[in-house]
Design goal:
- The protein is an alpha+beta fold.
- Helices cover about 65% and strands about 10% of the residues.
- The protein has a 4-stranded antiparallel beta sheet with strand order 3-6-5-4, covered by helices on one side. It has a two-stranded antiparallel ribbon with strand order 1-2.
């Protein structure tokens, strides 16, 4: 009888090692994610912070914000997940478990809210270009509050409820082995506070995802409309199209000014280099527009001057920044919806085989892609970033020499 009992028993170490071997390819893949994400986001921080090619604007602020968030996740959460996979069923370190739970919530909510701020900025820039815009200084303050402080507050309750859960798992012989998981503690599993906490996150994720989709739908429609307007302008050379679509030619500089009664066009008759005209914008205000041109002694009506002096620019591709943020947002939505759907299956992992558990773990943590994909997207769509990456080492050496020379 004792021999039969021993045969039916698989120790916790043996069970954990069996699953750890199955998870090893995934653990290695996550290690690659951590290294690539760390180096890639570090390069982003160096390039956008030190290079003179990138002026202080909202795009730079957003890129640096996401890089900081992703860098933190790549040096905390992903390595912690790798450690967890090596001892998934005998996770006895409460402190490490709680730290991992904290960064799980912080990483998700911080990225989510940062992308929300970015989508709002894109909407204002493209759809409402003549309304008051978010300045870089304001963007920094908003991001600190929305993507920094608020996610920390959201992560605290989850960290408190997270801990070591002891349960039984069917072993290879069909018997039961006692295991220790890093999950919600048993005393909080049926708590009303945990229910409220989970419901809050579901509402936030669904609400913000819908907001993303709505805002980017307007952005893409407006961008497409403006591209069509540019195409029509190239064909028909209509000056009205230039000033009513929100897209201007490279030699046209427009600055909004208070409404004025000036009705005439001023032009230097000697050089003909500049014409200044009040143009009515979409919001009803008048804008003082300067059309810069080479030497000319011509005068005439506004339409004649515009046709003569404004040279059509080649049709531009779809707005690069909108494409970048749209791709990153779609990746976030898809990966986190996948993660949240699989959360419903967490209670069934004790019945999964090693191969099933490995496949489950991959899709359950697929949201790690959000923290490593940014360098790839920037390299594909931002030519200046590709060039700057090649100059990172010389740039650092120059900064070091300048520092040492002080």
């Amino acid at each position: 009888m004792n021999n039969y009992t021993d045969y039916q028993t698989e120790s916790l170490d043996e069970l954990n090692d069996r699953y750890a071997r199955a998870l090893l390819p995934l653990t290695i893949a996550f290690g690659f994610f951590a290294v690539f994400g760390f180096l890639g986001n570090l390069i982003i921080l160096l390039v956008f912070s030190l290079s003179r090619d990138y002026k202080r604007n909202n795009f730079k602020v957003f890129v640096l914000t996401l890089a900081v968030i992703d860098l933190v996740i790549c040096i905390t959460l992903i390595p912690a997940e790798m450690v967890k996979q090596r001892k998934y069923f005998e996770f006895g370190d409460v402190v490490t478990c709680k730290v991992k739970c904290f960064f799980n919530v912080f990483g998700a909510s911080s990225s989510c809210l940062a992308l929300l701020v970015i989508s709002i900025d894109r909407f204002r820039k493209v759809v409402q270009p003549f309304k008051k815009q978010m300045s870089p200084a304001i963007a920094v303050r908003i991001l600190i509050a929305v993507a920094g402080v608020f996610p920390i507050l959201l992560a605290v309750p989850g960290t408190i409820m997270c801990g070591i859960k002891t349960t039984n798992m069917t072993n290879i012989h069909g018997g039961n082995t006692t295991i220790h998981l890093c999950e919600t503690e048993e005393k909080y599993e049926k708590s009303i506070w945990r229910t409220i906490y989970k419901f809050t996150f579901i509402v936030l994720l669904v609400g913000i995802s819908v907001t993303y989709i709505v805002l980017y739908t307007f952005v893409m429609k407006e961008a497409a409309k403006q591209m069509n307007a540019i195409s029509e302008q190239r064909t028909h050379s209509s000056p009205e199209t230039v000033f009513t679509t929100g897209i201007y030619y490279q030699n046209t500089v427009c600055n909004e000014t208070p409404e004025t009664n000036r009705k005439h066009i001023g032009i230097n008759e000697n050089t003909g280099s500049t014409i200044s005209v009040p143009i009515q914008m979409n919001n009803g205000s008048l804008s003082n527009c300067t059309l810069q041109n080479g030497a000319s002694n011509h005068t005439g009506s506004f339409e004649q001057i515009c046709r003569r002096n404004v040279r059509p620019k080649r049709s531009r591709l779809f707005p690069t920044k909108s494409i970048i943020w749209f791709i990153l947002t779609i990746v976030f939505i898809v990966t986190y919806i996948t993660h949240n759907l699989l959360t419903l299956k967490v209670g069934k992992i004790v019945n999964m085989s090693p191969s099933e558990f490995t496949l489950f773990s991959f899709f359950f943590r697929i949201y790690f892609l959000n923290h490593v994909i940014n360098p790839i997207v920037y390299a594909i769509f931002v030519k200046r970033f590709r060039c700057s990456c090649r100059n990172v080492a010389p740039m650092l050496l120059l900064k070091l020499r300048q520092y040492c020379a002080r």
